[in-house]
């Protein structure tokens, strides 16, 4: 029953888990460290999504740091 609810409501379950984790981090380490952690998680998710979709990650990295990741 529990797993069936999770599978039928993936977005709600993910949101609940993310809210719990970030709430715990906020209480444990503080506001600004939690914000920095969230930025790192979002960046990792973005780059991971690029890899999953087989997109060119070097274009993104080249926009951030021009000339550092491309061979010319």
From TrEMBL:
Transmembrane segments: 20-47
Domain of life: Bacteria
Keywords: Membrane, Transmembrane, Transmembrane helix
Pfam families: DUF2273
Record InterPro entries: DUF2273
Protein name per its UniProtKB record: DUF2273 domain-containing protein
Record lineage: Bacteria, Bacillati, Bacillota, Bacilli, Bacillales
